[in-house]
Amino acid sequence: MVNLDPKGQPNAGQPKAAPQGLHEARKAVFPRQIDGKFRRLKWAIMAFCLAVYYITPWLRWHRGPYSPDQAVLIDLAHRRFYMFSIEIWPQEFYFVAGLLIMAGIGLFLITSAVGRAWCGYACPQTVWTDLFQHVDRWIDGDRNAQFRLAKQPWNVEKITKRLSKWTVYLLISFSTGGAWILYFADAPTLFGDFFAGKAASIAYSTVFVLTCTTLWLGAFMREQVCIYMCPWPRVQSAMLDEKSLIVTYKDWRGEPRGKKAAPGAAPLGDCVDCGLCTAVCPTGIDIREGPQLGCITCALCIDACDQVMVKTGRPRGLIDYATLEDAEREKAGQPATAHAKLIWHPRTLVYLGVWSAIGLGLLFMLGTRQHISVAVSKDRNPPYMLLSAGEVRNAYAVRWKNMEGRPRKMELSLDGVPGAKMWAEDMPMASASGKIIRIVPADSTDPVRVYVLAPPTTTGEHKVTFTLRALDADGGSVSYAARFDAPEAQP
Ligand code: SF4
Ligand code: SF4
């Protein structure tokens, strides 16, 4: 870069400005281990999330001899989604859409109640980054040992530790990618086929891609995903207001900070400037600089500072969950609002109401949905045929659906054309009657071509209704509106 004077001329007398990059280089973060109630909560949530992710595909759920026995299965080949006793068919995708909407509103609800708790505790990026950071501590040692190792030249110790660490990283990443594909096929079978080299190529490529992305996001990118890549912090920032709980450094109590006041100087605040809050922060920020996008509200700095406060005989809570409104109240010497009141404010209740209404609606639909279904498509060309005796025949493609894991006896009947009779293409025409009875195989769609025959006197267009009724103890019936065409009446 050319160094110019104020007139735009090359400035030979001054040192050249250092070249500037397009972005700030990443500063490695080596968060220090800390114990405390929020750390223990993070442990519990992390263990729960990882256990759910890795164990779920192995859970079995008996659905009878005709359906898979994997508790949670996305069966793309047969276009089904199984979740314990619930089986979702493609035409019921609104259940999945409803669940996604609930997940979105759930995020709003959590943010409204307890700020960025999702980011700090349950987001997959947070959970896996935390896991990788524990591997760092387990192999390299705590913060200071990691600093030392990062700076020291490559020797036997560093090479050994790096190799060990990267092996564990790879194992975690591979397990993460490997567990994902088990949601899409019978887990024990796919597991065996995968290691025997007999699985489909898409399984290997999916595991490869997910292993690489887990490694990249968990080992390299870490806090940069939260600070620069993820849009959610920006959305959440827009949702937070002066009543939202955020991790707050109480500067009115902590400042002026310092280890020891100079003789004769004004007394110092409660912050002893030990830097422990920054040392434990997984995103490497200093919360004393105020609320920041990089703060995922994991509250580990609260654990850290509370330890310091206890050791130095000061009241805990120099860093604490607080709202901006309460910060002002506390600054003015007034008591803070009770946390329960902060959590259950009107906006939270509105989100909770909407979230619950959608959930109850889905549950109601799930509880009352029919496990049979029928779809009818009429032949358009020709719209009808006249048989030799003058009867009018229309043809339909009828799809009988049995959504139960057992074969079911069903009856198809028709209303709307007086005297009409029906038969299926695999039945003799002589057997035509007012209904067709078939056994529909378990968990399947049975496409049947159906002919409807009306008396010769039938004329014009008729609205007809096909009704499919299950003839077993569970019963149930569904209808489908269609059309019957006949020649126009002669004047
Ligand atoms: S841990 Fe507490 S006392 Fe130590 S620097 Fe942070 S705010 Fe100050
Ligand atoms: S500042 Fe505190 S709450 Fe925010 S990310 Fe760092 S440790 Fe977690």
From TrEMBL:
Residues 261-290 form the 4Fe-4S ferredoxin-type domain. It comes from the Bacteria. The chain crosses the membrane at residues 41-59, 93-114, 166-185, 197-219, 349-367. Keywords: 4Fe-4S, Electron transport, Iron, Iron-sulfur, Membrane, Metal-binding, Transmembrane, Transmembrane helix, Transport. Residues 1-23 are annotated as: Disordered. SUPFAM superfamilies: 4Fe-4S ferredoxins. InterPro entries: 4Fe4S_Fe-S-bd, 4Fe4S_Fe_S_CS, Cyt_c_oxidase_cbb3_FixG, Electron_Trans/Redox, FixG_C, Ig-like_fold. This is Cytochrome c oxidase accessory protein CcoG. It comes from Novosphingobium ovatum. The lineage of its organism: Bacteria, Pseudomonadati, Pseudomonadota, Alphaproteobacteria, Sphingomonadales. The gene is ccoG.
